[in-house]
Amino acid sequence: EKDGYDWFMRKEIFEQPRAVADALLGRHDGDGLLQLDEVRISEDELREVDKIVIIGCGTANYAGLVAKYAIEHWTRIPCEVELAHEFRYRDPILTRNTLVVAISQSGETADTLMAIRYARQQKARVLAVCNTNGSTIPRESDAVIYTHAGPEIGVASTKGFLTQLIACYLLGLYLAQVRGTKFGDEIAAVVDELAKMPDHVQCLLDSAEQVYELARTYAGTRSVLFLGRHAGFPVALEGALKLKELAYIHAEGFAAGELKHGPIALIEEGLPVFCVMPPRGRDQLHDKMVSAIQEIRARGARTLVLVEEGDEEVTRYADELIRLPVVPTLLQPVVATVPLQLFACELATAMGHDVDQPRNLAKSVTVE
Ligand code: M6R
């Protein structure tokens, strides 16, 4: 059942090209027009939506953070992202025109389930992004977009996350199509880029050995930091979570702009810091990230830089370079996450941990 892999997690990481392709399958026609028939909320109702609230826990919450950048940019609908367990305890403002998007791989997470029950009582519409057919969260939602990743057995979410990103992009583009906030050809251009994702992910997997070698040199490390900006910020959070869960190493993700507001005090000689470089299209962000990397390097950190092919500006400040395919900024999380998954999986293996069943964790958290 593990198909020759040592862990389900590793198998699931390697299934991602197929999972991403399946998540896209049948959801757009040849002209890039989106067909999300499964969204059983009428187009009229979708045109009335004036706020989106995305809820989820753990990795699903990070998928939501990425989704916010894309959905707001494409639809201009204000979008909030909230941890499901915080949501209903703060008296959130919900109306009939609020679309609550509940992201859950398992569809059984109690915190998320309680949150959608609350949202429906307040008359909001609830759309689930879920991987598990017939699970409780989609059953109790008004509509569902299934992520079609196939069963995810490793406790650490991998293909679940990548396909949640895809489903959220599709939702954002669909809303833009229905509401007319983007022209058809603009939507088709993004769909084209999405269609290339399975190949991009495959390329990264083909060079897994480079990341594995790197990971093995870090067994015994006490702390690792992750920096990103814009859509790369949730990637930093996800990279840190994988490392905490699997390697039991202290790991933290930061928005790089926040460094000077405190975290830079943590930087010391030899501290490994992963840096997710924004694509060059985002000039300002790109330059700012280059200076952040310079700053931490000057203070002795070891910089492990994820950067797109052809971007040479940062090479001299990088102790290690991990190359990423060239993709649009909003879609970069799909590719940038993969090396971080490989790193955590391999480091935990090198440290002798049970990667599929990390201590103290359950695959689906069915208690609040
Ligand atoms: O099944 P769900 O997507 O609702 O699960 C949410 C989180 O519990 C889950 O993503 C958790 O953070 C993973 N172990 C992360 O790898």
From TrEMBL:
GO terms for molecular function: carbohydrate derivative binding; glutamine-fructose-6-phosphate transaminase (isomerizing) activity. GO terms for biological process: amino sugar biosynthetic process; carbohydrate metabolic process; fructose 6-phosphate metabolic process; protein N-linked glycosylation; UDP-N-acetylglucosamine metabolic process. It is found in: Cytoplasm. GO terms for cellular component: cytosol. The active site is at 363 (for fru-6p isomerization activity). It catalyses: D-fructose 6-phosphate + L-glutamine = D-glucosamine 6-phosphate + L-glutamate. Keywords: Aminotransferase, Cytoplasm, Glutamine amidotransferase, Repeat, Transferase. Homodimer. This is Glutamine--fructose-6-phosphate aminotransferase [isomerizing]. It comes from Nocardioides aurantiacus. The gene is glmS. The chain holds residues 251 to 618 of 618 of the full protein.
